[in-house]
Amino acid sequence: xxxxxxxxxxxxxxxxxxxxxxxxxxxxxxxxxxxxxxxxxxxxxxxxxxxxxxxxxxxxxxxxxxxxxxxxxxxxxxxxxxxxxxxxxxxxxxxxxxxxxxxxxxxxxxxxxxxxxxxxxxxxxxxxxxxxxxxxxxxxxxxxxxxxxxxxxxxxxxxxxxxxxxxxxxxxxxxxxxxxxxxxxxxxxxxxxxxxxxxxxxxxxxxxxxxxxxxxxxxxxxxxxxxxxxxxxxxxxxxxxxxxxxxxxxxxxxxxxxxxxxxxxxxxxxxxxxxxxxxxxxxxxxxxxxxxxxxxxxxxxxxxxxxxxxxxxxxxxxxxxxxxxxxxx
Amino acid sequence: xxxxxxxxxxxxxxxxxxxxxxxxxxxxxxxxxxxxxxxxxxxxxxxxxxxxxxxxxxxxxxxxxxxxxxxxxxxxxxxxxxxxxxxxxxxxxxxxxxxxxxxxxxxxxxxxxxxxxxxxxxxxxxxxxxxxxxxxxxxxxxxxxxxxxxxxxxxxxxxxxxxxxxxxxxxxxxxxxxxxxxxxxxxxxxxxxxxxxxxxxxxxxxxxxxxxxxxxxxxxxxxxxxxxxxxxxxxxxxxxxxxxxxxxxxxxxxxxxxxxxxxxxxxxxxxxxxxxxxxxxxxxxxxxxxxxxxxxxxxxxxxxxxxxxxxxxxxxxxxxxxxxxxxxx
DNA sequence: AGAAGATGTGTAATCGATTACACATCGTTG
DNA sequence: CAACGATGTGTAATCGATTACACATCTTCT
Lengths: 329, 329
Description:
Helix content of chain A is 47%, strand content 15%. By secondary structure, chain A is of the alpha/beta class. The first copy, chain A, folds into three domains: 4-47, 434 Repressor (Amino-terminal Domain); 56-156 and 293-319, Rossmann fold; 158-290, Rossmann fold, CATH 3.40.50.
């Protein structure tokens, strides 16, 4: 590998001058510049990032910790983050916790040792240990999707969006509304959306029936199974609508309903959250909420950049969302 | 940040001993070990990756260059790669060319300067310059999806898979088969799949009709538009089947056909490639080919690992695939 | 008992960049 | 014309790790 010393030698100057040329710092003569530029071009030289980092403490890398790489939400968010980081000439180091909370801490440490300039955390559950770790963390951290105390966080408007869905359902005349959620250890998706569900029912004096509620694990299959449970447990009094906290689970739920000959939304209306691409093309098309994931990615990206620049954040921000009414309700 | 020197001082030994302790190299006494372990625990010390890299030339990072982050295929592949890299304690540095061939070269260089230990390239088009760049490249590179001369490549069985689709279509009695492809600058998706299409028709002495063929750009919308063009240009003699080179475009095509009141597969059969999640849930469910993207990701991952270890590869490998017969044909 | 090997630790060079400081040259100005 | 600022370049320390080499003890074996 060519180093700055090689370039210096070939161009007949000292490595200091080469460095100055590269970084545009200090004066470099016309002639020297040309020779250096030439040599660099010929050799295809690129400065060693590790040497630079060792001196400057800047890696030009930010780390992303996400629960699962291969989901639509993740890849949209990453794409958004990528957009702003590219603009700043920064690279992205991806880590995937596979929904294991311990890994969140592990990767936090790893990114520290890699001296990431900043970290974007898409957490799922927020434990004691995680918070402790972040408290004394030497690297700027921002969070997306969950509100982490002490960390600038951009959250989705889970409560409001869910309320909107519920209103829509209720507005359409549905009174027996079921729910397919996820574990409450997930504050945003598990807890908040469910609270919005029960709150909406209570506000309208509608029944909150345990057997109309089921828990899945984000997968399409788990939505199918959850729907199956709800239907088989309520043969005599099935719900006439189901609010699913993710589009994937909603898709599974619809799949089961269709199999069983229920008409959607005639017999049972279904709504989801997330606006997966698929939701528009299944039949009937799925009523859902779009969270502008890509823009949210850009927004946390900017947020991290600002935090890195020392700008304090008002800690709590909610990203916009949009209710998408389609044919399943 | 605590450094190895701090640890050494606190533990009352030299930094050499600390290093040996950390790397399990050479002898370290019981007592010293304990003191060092203690201090490290107390301080939460992690060695500086950049300093290590500067000395050892190993970053523990591999780069992935992909055409677009936020696609199902990409995220599946990345997930697969991640799986094997995690096993080896390696991190992934993601770069996204946004389908710009120039960026492929740019990122290659960037990953060089970051001293990635290896690179996985998901190229789209393969130009002269790209090949030149790779030829003298100091870092192991492997490719997925496209066969790049001189580079160990794992390709999908595009020709065979497409032929299978065509056989299926023909076997079902279709004789007027249309085609929705992408630009031929993409050797695998654009060229190979189209060749398989025309070859299959010729083999059966079926008509290859220009106006039954249209080009999209991978997007659902472009599939819709392509289908529209084919139908409007052939009012009197529309095809009775369409082979789309991606599921997304097939989805768009179906959307148009449904809108226009064509029954699928009664009036027009549709088939795609890629087995997007959505394909199973749209109506009718889409006949397609599954490329085992995640496994392919694992496979190139292993391939890269081997290449990095100095094992020469038989250059050309084809990944398995599976025809999935559903209701659209 | 003395030699040979095993065990445990330290000294100092090194990786490839950045940067404070010093020095030289040149044009401008009072 | 002496002095000063602008311009252009080099010397050497530094960042935080690894590692070749040297040295000291302690076992063990003949």
